[in-house]
Design goal:
This protein has about 180 residues and is mainly beta. It contains one helix and ten strands. Strands 1-2-3-5-8-9-7-6 form an eight-stranded mixed β-barrel. A two-stranded parallel sheet has the order 4-10. The mean pLDDT is about 85.
Length: about 180
């Protein structure tokens, strides 16, 4: 069943070894098994020196995948203590191009305990969803969770078809062992 339809896997029965360091391709990817999401992640060239430039870079990155979103206080990377965002579209104008314009629409059904993966620099990082909340679009400080544990937050617009609020899905790293996480610069 897992091979034929990975989205139907009972995630509570997945065994994750916190000491495992699964080697994967060097291509950065986000994988959400529950919804069969498997997208490239663009970490570089997604943050500009102005809000307008950052918006342009993020939109370009999200045409065919998802984009790293970080700023002071939440600018770690997988395997580092602290938080960072991975932003993707839940909906976009149907006339717009791009293969990922509806990629994060299923995330509106994410639940605590769901699992997602980030492949980064040849290692697969596993995250357990611990908190889900909605915030106003300008509440960027909601991503600042401190730097005591490695986290990643999936970010998208909600309700579906609007950009009224942001849905934040916080995940704590469970594999490789969070105790081996390095300090973010």
């Amino acid at each position: 069943q897992a091979y034929v339809s990975p989205g139907n896997i009972d995630q509570q029965k997945i065994i994750v070894d916190p000491n495992a360091a699964l080697q994967v391709s060097d291509e950065p990817r986000l994988i959400v098994p529950r919804f069969n999401i498997d997208l490239p992640v663009q970490y570089e060239n997604t943050m500009g020196n102005t809000a307008a430039k950052t918006n342009d870079l993020q939109m370009a990155a999200m045409r065919n995948g998802v984009a790293y979103f970080g700023a002071a206080g939440f600018d770690s990377r997988p395997g580092q203590n602290g938080n960072f965002g991975i932003a993707g579209h839940s909906s976009n104008d149907f006339t717009d191009g791009g293969a990922a314009k509806f990629a994060f629409a299923p995330l509106l059904r994410m639940k605590k305990g769901d699992i997602f993966y980030l492949n980064y620099k040849g290692i697969r990082y596993t995250y357990n969803v611990t908190k889900i909340k909605e915030v106003q679009p300008d509440n960027v400080s909601a991503l600042n969770t401190g730097n005591t544990k490695p986290m990643a937050t999936l970010i998208t617009c909600t309700p579906l078809g609007t950009a009224e609020r942001r849905l934040l899905i916080f995940g704590e790293q469970i594999s490789p062992s969070p105790s081996k996480a390095s300090t973010a610069p």
